[in-house]
Input
Amino acid sequence: MTAAAIPSTTRATAGERPKPQRWDPGIAWRTVLLHVVLAAIAGLAVAPLAWMVSASLMPAGSATTYPPPLLPHPVTWANYHELFAHLDLAHELRNSALVAGLITVSSLLFNSMAGYAFAKFQFPARDRLFRLVLLGLFIPPQVAMLPLFILLRELHLVNSFAGVVLPSMATVFGTFLVRQYVLGIPDELLDAARVDGAGEFRIYWSIVLPLCAPVLVTLAVFVFMSAWNDFMWPLVVLTDSAKYTLPVGLANLSREHVQDTELMMAASVVTLLPVLLLFISLQRYYIRGITMGGVKG
Amino acid sequence: MSQDGIIRGDAGGRAARRAAFVFLAPGLVLIAVTFLLPAVASFVLSLTDFDIYAVADPSNARIIWLRNYAALARTPMFWIALRNTLYFVLAGGPISVIVSLGVAVLLESELVRWRVFFRTVYFAPVVTTLVAVAVVWKYLYDPRYGLLNAGLHALGLPSVDWLGSTVWAMPSIILMTVWKGFGYNMIIFMAGLQAVPGDLYDAARVDGAGAWQRFWHVTMPTLAPTFLFVSITTMIGFLQLFSEPYVMTQGGPLHATLSVALYMFTEGFESWHVGMGAAIAFVLFALTLIGALVQLRLRPKGTEGGA
Amino acid sequence: MAAAGCGNGGTHGATPVTLRFWAFGREGEVVQALIPGFERAHPGIRVRVQQIPFTAAHEKLLTSVVGRATPDIAQLGNTWVPELVALRALVPLDSMLARSRAITRDDYFEGIWATNVLDGTTWGIPWYVDTRVIFYRSDLLKSAGFPAPPRTWSQWRDAMIRVRAQSGGHHYGILLPVNEWAQPVILGLSMGAPLLRDADTYGDFSDPRFQAAFAFYVGLFRDSLAEPVSNVQVANLYQSFGEAEFAMFISGPWDVGECLRRLPPSLQGRWATAPMPAPDAEAAADTTAPGVSLAGGSSLVVFKGSPYPDSAWAFIEYLSDPEREARFYALSGDLPPRRSGWNDSALAHNTYARAFRQQLQFVRATPKIPEWDEITTLLADQSEAAVRGGVVPDSALAVLDREVDGALEKRRWLRARDRAVAAAP
Output
């Protein structure tokens, strides 16, 4: 694993992408064809989500008619009203935000500390330890679930938000991501600070963290979305419906209200909207996180 | 400790070790306690017959060594789950990777305008909550009122009982998974494609190579490490198939979509055959490891040292 | 941490008590209508109902027990009671029963009550019952020479043969989905077969009584009186019943409402319910008794971790009142477990419910052990193997016994170990 230079915010290009030299009808045709294909793919990518939004605004029962309608006639907000007034979705929304928020904050702290240590501190067996930790990437999370649940029970953390948050507070991937990034920080910067008498924690807090801002934002976006979308663990840990996060509540709802298509679509919209908005506004960071984890690994 | 008593960033020494310990401890302790140790405990549990009686009183558990694994080998349900999971991985995996690569190639073309817009749209399904998406697709797949069958009808084709037919249930899940995930690997491929040196393409063009040949002889070899990475990570993710069958089919119809992870969930959390559930989870882990090793072994020459 | 003041609730307590009650499926929805009445009668106690889908109920219950995050009260399918008792999750109710005037054991159908008693201790109070009876096309049977439903197995077979003959061999006498365990077990119970032996530690499906019942069952398929289909192959039960593809099927109270709703108006009045027929030997002894059927239904239980067992009991007493049960029946269609609950006029005049009323006096519990669920799966598999013709019935039962013995090995080991511990000086 080579040390990466601090990634710039522009795409790294090893070679220039050649620009078309002159107007050429062949190129024009190919361009049009290409964009038609791309537009078709975009349509396919968006269609289910678009139908979901459309169906969520339909009156109850109208989505299950044949032929299935594409647009609501008339548009109604009744499904959303039902979700928030009678089905506790506001509660679940709040729970999801709380859980995802807690996980994100703690993840930022612990992963950055550990990643920094792996990158910049010298201690015996450091690299061996790091490789051992990386091995965890191969272990499916399901393997740990049963004993972890029993451990939580001993700690009286079943059916608590702490129980949901705990396993996600520090992760192998997050540590890895930070370490790769921090490797690119020049040692001289840190040594200079030490010569000036700064304590280790001060160095971490005032120098390393600010320099890490890009990877931290990436990590935060990544972790928040992953925590928001998490399903299996909250399903197992939370038994009290008042504590359900959105995915768990949604799965529950879908078994009870399997007939109420429009209602289920509205619930899905509520579940998806926050992460979609977050993604659209911060996609640059999220996508960079993937490439950093992937290509430069 | 160096001469002037200062800890240097990459020097050794007691103080450095102490600092490292403080920084590492919270994260590593959490990872160890919530992940690595339970994984080891899982292996130990898989050697016992820990079940509902043992949950009430741990002394009710006995060590039975490899009997759980032997029993699994004799259980038809396990082989069904294994078959389904391998079907999902071996059919869905390549499809997903190829679609991602294809779209990445299209999007990296020099002729593309509004690249960021398309990239955003293609990536949007990736960030969506799986449970929500599964609920939506369940309705899209409805045999009578779903959009997919309505579309088939419009084309004059007969309806398909997507989630109710033992033949079509897994392909339906594969289709949804490809839709949801192709953007992710597409991004990785795009980054990999950007790393292909432009002069290689020029040289190939000068030699008279057509588009397909350029792709096969210039792009693919350079992309090989990325391809390997994508294929391993996709395989790891696909092996863990759980939420889709849980929400959409509950493993049905007639266990056609029962995956190993779902089987582990039902054995472990519904029947509380904990020892057995742990054994199943371990089999999943072994599959992951074997799959990764096989792919690493099979990679073409020239990608050594990569990934 | 029990509620202060009078032993039966928070009326004199300082802080309001909130009981958490888990209910499943449709029952979870409709029971909410009964809560306000309870809260008015017991100011200081509130009840919060958590509704859980049936398909997730078992998993949620067990997970909550393991995780020590149980509610105060829950609805529990009575076949799940042994599991929770083995987990030591429930509060024994005998002492509260002894003091109670609202709940009297004699008023309940004996077979149903027995499902909640293990080793002499009462763990749950029946909330609603179900059992299985025959649903049949009265018009088809009438034209086949059976104005009254069959009362013995030989009459039953006879009716099926005639119905099939009169359709020219196109239709079947009865629908018996081959992947279900309930039908062979019901027939076995009617023959008096024990199903398991030696304190439920070994399979006893090779007992001659079960063999005879199973032979009768498999014979129906062999003689083409029933079609070897699984329950997922029956696309629409009610449509097929309406179109006379089969003249009879075995089911529970929920299908009364379903048939009323889904069968076309022309078919109403041409179908009816009847108790299970009795094997000939039994019928010879007592011509009025029907065959034995399953003792199903749900009970109300109190969890050990509950801080308010007395308030929980008050709530159970409230729901067990015959008037409330009658109201619950009106809302859900679930049958009351108490004889006095049946005096409600709606039920008393319901012609379809009569068969259930009669059957409920002749129900028997299946073995009350946690492994029973697993055993039913093994039974369904072997039964299907015998029906589809690959395996001789008695061999299938022998294989079943071996498999059941395997499933019960842990139970035997635990009993042997506990006996050794008890016998140690």
